[in-house]
Amino acid sequence: MIRVENLHKHFGGFHAVDGASLEIAPGSITGLIGPNGAGKTTLFNVIAGVLKPTSGHVFMGDENITGLPPHELFHKGVLRTFQIAHEFSTMSCRENLMMVPGDQSGERLWNTWVGRKRIANEERALRAKADEVLEFLTIEHLADHKAGQVSGGQKKLLELGRTMMVDAKIVFLDEVGAGVNRTLLNTIGDAILRLNTERGYTFVVIEHDMDFIGRICDPVICMAEGKKLAEGTLDEIKANEQVIEAYLGTGLKNKAAAG
């Protein structure tokens, strides 16, 4: 579904992404791991159009989507979430979801005068879909709560819900477990697995919680120093000498071997 070819993103002399090449298979839940500074989030930002690449290419199927802005990728079904949830804090959880679909009739001033019936019909349909999404995510009891007042884990679920309000094809999840308690993290994992199996979503997940990665992700890609270091099952990744060195350092690895 997504193919990255020799991608580079430089910030002055710092090469955050340094020749990364990888493929994301349709229908997969791919884990993306690596030490801090490996380039994972920058890679996400380049694929999702938040940053322009210095060089290299990103393909979605056979289409070159390199450098397309986020709003164009959104309409192609490429969505991403962020480490810190971006909710409309003074709006309800339901209203946050209803805001997502683009090209709504109510966005045009002319329609507020002559298209009120169409606007009302659209809003009823959006409300029904938002309530369905909230129920799917088991947070229907938060429908009328202000989004800024729910917990961090519930905000992450709400971000996942936003992807369900449009025709998402691939979703990039950036540290979905950050600051989330174990119970809610399990709920998020359940939702990801259901969206994958029941609705055909493809996911790429950056996460430091290896239990979470091991539960939902196959394959797992490890990045280091801006490029792909290894790919395989989580057990294969954990046993990979290059991965161990990237996480622990040569000195620590040799010390452990000597011990």
Automatic annotation (TrEMBL):
Superkingdom as given in the UniProt entry:
Bacteria
- Which Gene3D superfamilies has this protein been placed in? P-loop containing nucleotide triphosphate hydrolases
Molecular function (Gene Ontology), one example? ATP hydrolysis activity
InterPro entries recorded for this chain? Answer: AAA+_ATPase, ABC_AA/LPS_Transport, ABC_transporter-like_ATP-bd, ABC_transporter-like_CS, BCA_ABC_TP_C, P-loop_NTPase
Recorded GO cellular component terms are:
plasma membrane
Q: Transmembrane among the record's keywords?
A: no
Question: What are the protein's UniProt keywords?
Answer: ATP-binding, Nucleotide-binding, Transport
SUPFAM superfamilies, alphabetized: P-loop containing nucleoside triphosphate hydrolases (SSF52540)
| ABC transporter domain sequence ranges | 2-250
Q: What start and end residues bound the annotated signal peptide?
A: none
Instruction: Write down the Pfam families for this protein, in alphabetical order.
Output: ABC_tran, BCA_ABC_TP_C
* PROSITE patterns linked: ABC_TRANSPORTER_1, ABC_TRANSPORTER_2
Name of the protein this chain belongs to: Amino acid/amide ABC transporter ATP-binding protein 1, HAAT family
User: Which species expresses this protein natively?
Assistant: Poseidonocella sedimentorum
